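Quick one, tokens below. Sequence please?
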């Protein structure tokens, strides 16, 4: 099933998500639904809080369906390595139409569990590194706008307030 995406302003996006302890069919169904929801929203990454579920689970496919092997499921992920720097435009399904330059590490290693509970490590660069950081941030209640200047962040928040008032947000 396709879940609607939760937009900025919902408190679920700004609180730390809960550790996942059960690796059962429900989790596997949720993972399938998250990929479906992510593709339907034209995203390359989605964290469970973005569909209103406060659990430490994220899915990523930086190739957007091109390479089935690129599909990545992260359960209880932690960033364990960061190297170098990259600056590039970043966006988020929960902040549609806002894109800002964000500086992040260029090579990132994550440690996470798969849907069966097995721990693995994955290293990625460029867009994948950015996605690993962005999605893990989500699970810690952190949005990409926390990585831009206070001035830009306030501007974005003001624009969103206007959209909310106009009934054009959510
Ligand atoms: Ni996001």
């Amino acid at each position: 099933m396709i879940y609607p995406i939760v937009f900025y302003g919902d408190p679920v996006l700004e609180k730390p998500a809960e550790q996942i302890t059960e690796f059962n069919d429900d989790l596997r169904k949720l993972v399938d639904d998250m990929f479906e929801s992510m593709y339907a929203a034209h995203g390359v990454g989605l964290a469970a809080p973005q569909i209103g579920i406060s659990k430490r689970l994220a899915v990523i496919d930086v190739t957007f369906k091109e390479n089935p092997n690129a599909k990545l499921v992260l359960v209880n992920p932690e960033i364990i390595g960061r190297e170098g720097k990259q600056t590039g435009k970043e966006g988020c399904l929960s902040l549609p139409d806002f894109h800002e330059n964000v500086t992040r590490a260029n090579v990132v290693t994550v440690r996470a569990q798969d849907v069966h509970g097995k721990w693995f490590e994955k290293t990625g660069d460029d867009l994948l590194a950015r996605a690993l950081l962005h999605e893990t941030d989500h699970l810690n209640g952190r949005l990409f706008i926390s990585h831009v200047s206070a001035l830009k962040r306030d501007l974005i928040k003001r624009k969103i307030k206007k959209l909310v008032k106009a009934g054009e947000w959510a």
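The beta strands are 45-47, 57-60, 72-83, 86-90, 100-104, 107-113, 119-125. Residues 77 and 136 are 7 Å apart (CA to CA).
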